[in-house]
Amino acid sequence: MTDTLREGSLVGLGNPLLDISAVVPLDFLQKYAMKEDDAILAEERHMPIYRELIERFQAEFLAGGSVQNSLRIAQWIIGKPKVAVFFGCVGQDDYANILAEKACAAGLDVHYQVKCDTPTGTCAVLITGTHRSLCANLAAANKFTIDHLDIPRNQALIENGLYYYISGFFLTVTPPSIMRVAATAHARQRPFLMNLSAPFISQFYMAPLLAVMPYVDIIFGNEAEAKAFAEGQCWPADADLREIGKRLVALDKLNPKRPRIAILTQGCDPVLLVQHDSVQEFPVTRLAAHEIVDTNGAGDAFVGGFLSQFVQGKSLDVCIRCGNYAAGHIIKNPGCTYSGKPEFVE
């Protein structure tokens, strides 16, 4: 780790959620009209799912939310507390206390906005074999407002950041907050990173996604998310992931001196690093079936591993290799959890 890595270098905004995780049969997914590897927002018909998970299955509680997960993993690998600052909204309840306690124990510096009239958000994590499906009830996480960033202490933390990471999921909550942070990053010539997050973001939130895209220096996504974006843009139906990546990096950008980079994952197939003049592949170490415990959080972990090196000024190939390391480690553990000390070798 570089000696110059300081507190507050990495700023993240996202939806803090308490994960309620359990192994369930396929018919449980069907009962709630869900598919394997879904990532959806809860509708009224899904509301009983959380209580049923607790009452019928051996559910575990984990501090979750995509960005918070990624920052926890980054902190684990960095090994120095409070490098990462996290903003999100919670309720005034025991779940919020659990989230804050676990986040701080992981080394995060959390600055939650608190809403007294709404419970802390939850996410059902339904594990079926090596697949996981997510059903998020954002609740308080959906109540984040830009005025939380106007509080002088929080404003100073935003302006003090050197790197910024926000998930596409946050587009469902507060596009103005995303644009505020993106504009700060642009004005200060600091990297702004974002994640496509889930196919439904491109399907239903394309307008705010396109509004922030000119600010995005690095865009993350998996195969399904990239294809959903391509469909939303009416790009050729036969475009493969490489072509989609090239089109992503070619979208309009406010700072042409820092060409956009796309990093696209595809499960156990190679990660693609797409730049304006090249596409590189980075192999993923395949795990034996018995080593795979839970794929929940693998994507978040990849980003966390990447960020842990990126904020230290490492090369993109080192960042991606660390992302692959982190994802491989998380898959061997239940939920987006880690064990022991990181063993990434640059």
From TrEMBL:
<comment type="similarity">
    <text>Belongs to the carbohydrate kinase PfkB family.</text>
</comment>
<dbReference type="InterPro" id="IPR001805">
    <property type="entry name" value="Adenokinase"/>
</dbReference>
<keyword id="KW-0547">Nucleotide-binding</keyword>
<dbReference type="InterPro" id="IPR029056">
    <property type="entry name" value="Ribokinase-like"/>
</dbReference>
<comment type="pathway">
    <text>Purine metabolism; AMP biosynthesis via salvage pathway; AMP from adenosine: step 1/1.</text>
</comment>
<dbReference type="GO" id="GO:0005524">
    <property type="term" value="F:ATP binding"/>
</dbReference>
<dbReference type="InterPro" id="IPR002173">
    <property type="entry name" value="Carboh/pur_kinase_PfkB_CS"/>
</dbReference>
<dbReference type="GO" id="GO:0005634">
    <property type="term" value="C:nucleus"/>
</dbReference>
<comment type="function">
    <text>ATP dependent phosphorylation of adenosine and other related nucleoside analogs to monophosphate derivatives.</text>
</comment>
<feature type="active site" description="Proton acceptor">
    <location>
        <position position="300"/>
    </location>
</feature>
<comment type="subunit">
    <text>Monomer.</text>
</comment>
<dbReference type="GO" id="GO:0006144">
    <property type="term" value="P:purine nucleobase metabolic process"/>
</dbReference>
<keyword id="KW-0539">Nucleus</keyword>
<keyword id="KW-0660">Purine salvage</keyword>
<dbReference type="GO" id="GO:0005829">
    <property type="term" value="C:cytosol"/>
</dbReference>
<keyword id="KW-0067">ATP-binding</keyword>
<keyword id="KW-0460">Magnesium</keyword>
<dbReference type="GO" id="GO:0044209">
    <property type="term" value="P:AMP salvage"/>
</dbReference>
<dbReference type="GO" id="GO:0006166">
    <property type="term" value="P:purine ribonucleoside salvage"/>
</dbReference>
<feature type="domain" description="Carbohydrate kinase PfkB">
    <location>
        <begin position="35"/>
        <end position="339"/>
    </location>
</feature>
<dbReference type="Pfam" id="PF00294">
    <property type="entry name" value="PfkB"/>
</dbReference>
<dbReference type="GO" id="GO:0004001">
    <property type="term" value="F:adenosine kinase activity"/>
</dbReference>
<keyword id="KW-0418">Kinase</keyword>
<protein>
    <recommendedName>
        <fullName>Adenosine kinase</fullName>
        <ecNumber>2.7.1.20</ecNumber>
    </recommendedName>
</protein>
<dbReference type="InterPro" id="IPR011611">
    <property type="entry name" value="PfkB_dom"/>
</dbReference>
<keyword id="KW-0808">Transferase</keyword>
